[in-house]
Amino acid sequence: MDVMRIHALKQQLEKQIAAFSPVLLKDFPIKTYMELIDRYPKVGNYTYMSPEVKKLADTISRSCSSEVFESYHKCLLLSFIERAQEKSEFLSLPGEIRTYYSLNFERIFHDIESGVHEAGFYLYPSDKFLKDLGVCSLRLIPAGAQKLNLSPLPADFLFRNGTSQFIIGLAYVLFELRGFRPLYNMHTDSHDTHLMSEFNPAGWRNFLVRAADLIKLNPSVKGVFGKTWFVDPQLEKISPRLCYVRHIFNRNGGRFFYLGPCTSGIEDAVYKSPTRKKLYEYGKYIPKEYLGVWSGRSLIQWAERQKALMQ
Ligand SMILES: CC(C)(COP(=O)(O)OP(=O)(O)OC[C@H]1O[C@@H](n2cnc3c(N)ncnc32)[C@H](O)[C@@H]1OP(=O)(O)O)[C@@H](O)C(=O)NCCC(=O)NCCS
């Protein structure tokens, strides 16, 4: 992205901030905020906030209006974008992943420039803001149909579905994954239009091949995982065209573990589909979440076969 454009937009925002809170940027330099985020552990969800960042964010929010704090956070995102493109961490990524980062930076820049988002978007705990912050600070990796961050595999799935899930799950972790951490946690980012345009069978296959390439570059990463409602076997009858993700995993070495219904899963499942909404309202469908896991070793083998087929 053009650094001059970023710089100009940042200056514009800084002027707006100074007009309402003349000392805010001096009292709470963006650089300090960035340094605190840089100290986050490498393995952790994009929603993580350290106690230091919480304290700083609370202090800033008490010192200015929420509107000014949003402008401050926009400056923070732009400062991260400005810096990202020079970081060795960024430059050593595969070319395709760098391209996805660039597309995301463009989108985030454009959203700030055109002011498309409703009030509150750039404040905690807005999930979309946290995703953008994760991307700009290079903690969340845009890889096509999904975004990835390093995370431990949450062990609670072992206790969600009786003894057999406990035994099979533990054996999978010990003998196939060889440990609980770190894995790439997969996330759908529904406000990223580019990501959504790749949410289809080919897009998912290409994303999983990219995830395998990332694991080859980072062999300590044990695999990928994600929690979602859209791999629920009930969808075989209700939304058959959405079953391809479950099929790719199931047929090629990935595993699913039952988690159960949860409020956010239900909201997401009925959000876009009139069919699922109606069935849910009639009590004929209760969305259930599953944990999908695929070990790096098996994913890489599958990806190599895919690459051979694509040649
Ligand atoms: C997950 C998600 C991206 C999948 O979207 P999708 O691939 O379009 O598939 P959906 O089954 O959700 O489609 C919803 C509607 O779009 C239309 N649609 C989707 N694919 C279509 C296709 N190939 N042809 C025609 N219409 C289609 C249909 O109207 C469908 O509604 P219906 O089920 O009543 O027929 C989407 O459901 C979503 O954004 N959900 C909310 C956020 C979310 O769940 N995130 C994941 C959290 S883990």
> Number of DSSP strands?
6
Unreliable sequence segments: none
Q: What would the principal axes of the Cα set say about the shape?
A: globular
Integer tally of domains: 2
Helix content class: 55-70%
CATH architecture of the largest domain: 3-Layer(aba) Sandwich
Unique ligands:
coenzyme A
CA-CA gap between termini: 32 Å
What structural category do the secondary elements indicate?
A: alpha+beta
Average pLDDT score: 97
Which fold does the CATH topology of the largest domain refer to?
Answer: Aminopeptidase
Following the backbone from N to C, one meets helices and strands in this order, namely: HHHHHHHHEEHEHHEHHEHHEH
CATH level 1 name of the largest domain: Alpha Beta
State which percent range the strand residues make up: 5-15%
From the alpha carbons, calculate the radius of gyration and give it in angstroms: 21 Å
Number of helices: 16
Strand order of the largest sheet: 1-2-3-4-6-5
What summary fits the major beta sheet?
6 strands, mixed
What do these coordinates show?
This protein has two domains: about 5-140, no CATH class; about 145-310, Aminopeptidase (3-Layer(aba) Sandwich). About 60% of the residues lie in helices and about 10% in strands. It is built from 16 helices and six strands. It has a six-stranded mixed beta sheet, sandwiched between helices. A hairpin with a 4-residue loop joins strand 1 (about 140) and strand 2 (about 145-150). Helix 1 (about 5-20) packs antiparallel against helix 5, helix 5 packs antiparallel against helix 7 and helix 11 packs across helix 16. The longest helix has 20 residues, at about 95-115. The protein is globular and about 60 Å long.
